[in-house]
Design a protein that fits this description.
Bound molecules: phosphoric acid mono(formamide)ester, norvaline
Oligomer: single chain
Order of helices and strands: HEHEHEHEHEHEHEHEHHEHH
Largest sheet: 5 strands, parallel
Strand order of the largest sheet: 7-6-5-8-9
Structural class: alpha/beta
CATH class of the largest domain: Alpha Beta
CATH architecture of the largest domain: 3-Layer(aba) Sandwich
Number of domains: 2
Radius of gyration: 19 Å
Number of strands: 9
Length: about 325
């Protein structure tokens, strides 16, 4: 049973095929492909709110001939103490796949090990791999004629802000998969944390990233400047301290101008203008935030096709 819980669950060869498929789906949006999921039911179990991830998966599953079932955790018996293990077993009796957005990454791992259907990570506190795949595709689209994954190699991506977050961790793992140069910059107390460092150690991955508190040093020669919210879902009670500590790391036009001449600005969204990014960067011609959001759909379809196919072989 193939799952997609972290970026490196796909090899670079599999990722290459997924990028080719995402491009094909994007070029051919007018045509649905109902034989891919062929009336399968795919559940979306969400413990947190979502706009892009939920909608792109629901639309994507429909376009591939499947049926999406949106399940709000708070309306499930999970919220009254039914176990993850039992819920995984029950959902496996009804559905063909399970897409989960939750807090602790161990929850998606438990769904994967206790159930008997494919599990896709739609964001945990640790990682957001579907986002990274569509962001990397967006970059490849800007850097090559045919969204060639090779165009990512050795490019410098600079992640600014909360470097101990799901998006930062995911860029570390995704950057490793795509052979990119990943540099992170934020306050020392927001440096990449134990969970990602332990994961890299265990996986035998070395030199996956560089961290510096010096934003100007980080930005030099950057091909991409990436930022994310300062207050991730679940961290709302830390808003005051996070805003105070992270405010020197707001991405401004000076930063964008100090990167490479043709550098791109990215944000996974939702964004908070005048917090992590100034409007003149967000709405700049170098900003590709809405391409990123659109590509979520094409990429979800490519990921689902790859997973559905590997389960049938
Ligand atoms: N970027 C992203 O995952 O957006 P949503 O939280 O709206 O799904
Ligand atoms: N780091 C953000 C990403 C949202 C897509 C969060 O977890 O809220």
């Amino acid at each position: 049973m193939k799952h997609f819980l972290k970026e490196t669950d796909f090899s670079i060869q599999e990722a290459t095929d997924i990028f080719i498929l995402a491009q094909k789906y994007k070029n051919d949006r007018g045509h649905n492909n109902p034989s891919v999921l062929n009336n399968e039911s795919w559940a979306l179990l969400f413990y947190k709110t979502s706009t892009r991830t939920r909608i792109s998966f629901e639309v994507g599953i429909n376009e591939l001939g499947g049926h999406p079932l949106y399940l709000d955790k708070d309306t499930m018996q999970l919220s009254r103490g039914e176990s993850v293990a039992d819920t995984a077993k029950i959902l496996s009796r009804y559905c063909h796949g399970l897409i989960i957005r939750t807090y602790d990454h161990k929850i998606v791992e438990e769904f994967a090990s206790e159930g008997t259907i494919t599990v896709v990570n739609a964001l945990t506190d640790f990682l957001h791999p579907c986002q990274i795949f569509s962001d990397a595709f967006t970059l490849a689209e800007h850097w090559s004629e045919d969204s060639n994954i090779i165009s990512l190699k050795d490019r410098k991506i600079v992640f600014i802000g909360d470097c101990n977050s799901n998006m930062a961790n995911s860029w570390i793992l995704g950057g490793h998969l795509f052979s990119m140069n990943v540099v992170l910059s934020g306050p020392e107390t927001f440096a990449p944390g134990k969970e990602i460092n332990d994961h890299l150690d265990k996986a035998g991955i070395t030199n996956a990233y560089t961290f510096t508190t010096d934003i100007h040093e980080a930005i030099e020669d950057a091909d991409v400047i990436y930022t994310d919210v300062w207050v991730s879902m679940g961290k709302e009670n830390e808003e005051a301290i996070r805003t105070k500590k992270l405010s020197p790391y707001k991405v401004t036009l000076d930063h964008l101008n100090a990167a490479k001449k043709d550098a791109l600005f990215m944000h996974c969204l939702p964004a908070h203008l005048e917090m992590e990014v100034s409007p003149d960067v967000y709405y700049n011609s170098k900003s590709v935030v809405f391409d990123q959001a659109e590509n979520r759909l094409h990429m979800q379809k490519a990921i689902l096709t790859s997973l559905a196919g590997s389960n049938k072989t």
